[in-house]
Amino acid sequence: MRKLTLLALVLVAGAIATPAAAKKKKDKKKPAVEQLQPVQLLTCSDSVSYAAGVNATEGLLPFLQQQMHVDTAYMDDFIRGLNEALATKDDPRQIAFRAGQNIAEQLQQRMLPGMKRDFTDTPDSLSENLFFQGFLHALRGDTAHFSSTQASSKYFQMKQKQNREAKTERLYGDNRRQGEQFLADNAKKEGVVTLPSGLQYKVLTQGTGPTPKATDKVQVHYEGRLVDGTVFDASKKHGDKPATFEANRVIKGWTEALTLMPVGSKWQLYIPYNLAYGERDMGNIKPFSALIFDVELIGIE
Asked: Which residues have a Cβ under 8 Å from the Cβ of 50 and sit 6 or more positions away?
C-alpha cells in the first residue's frame, strides 16, 4: 500500500510539472522560418529578373561568413532581416535605425581598433565604454565635459600625437640617432656633397647626357642599403632591365638627385630619413632610417 501511495504522488507531481515544462519548451521555440513567395516566370523579362537575383547571391555566403561574421546556421534570421529592410526601405525611422547599426559596426570594427593601436604601450589607454559614451553624448549635443572642438583639436589629437611620438621614439629613437650620426660622419668624407635639404651624394661616374625634369620618366639601375650595409632592394632583383618610373613618383631624396644627374651618371646617395620614408615602417626599412643608394641613370623616355 505504501508503494502505491508513493507511485501516485510521483505521477501527480509529474502531472503538475508538465504544463510548466511545456511552457518553458514553448518559450524556447525557434523563430518561424521565413516563407518564400511562390514565383511564376511567365515572360522572358520575368526569367531574366529572377535569374539576376539568383546571380546576385554568388559569393554571398563566404562574404557573410568572412567579412560580416554571420553564422550561416542563422540564415532564417538573415532572411527575416533582409525582408524587413526591403519592406521598410522608404520609412525614415527605419532608414535612421539602419544607419545607426551601420555606424556602430564601423566604430567597432574600424575606427576604435585603429585608435586603440595608437595608444597601445603608452601611458594612456582607451576605454571602449567611455568611447561610446562620449560618441553618444556628442550626438545629443552634451558639452558638459568637452565640446567637439575641444575634444578634437585641444585634447584628443594632442594626446594622440604625444603618445604616438613617445612610442615611436622609444621603439626607433636609436635608429634615428644612428642615421644622424652616420650622415654627420659621412659629410666629412672626401667627395661627398651635402645639399641644403640634407641630401648627400658622391659622384662615381659623371655622365654627359641631358638632365631629367621631375615629370620625366627615367630608366635607372639601383641598389638600396641601410647604413649598416644591409641590402633591402636592387633593380637587378627584378630582372636585367632598368627600373622605369617618373622622377617625381619616388622618395624626395631620389627626386632631388635625379633632377641633378645627367644621363650616364652613377651617384651614391645618402638620404636622411625625412627625405626617405620618414616615420613609416616599410618592413626591412624601419622608421627614421637613413638610406644609401647606388643610382645609375640609364636614360630618359
From this structure: 39, 41
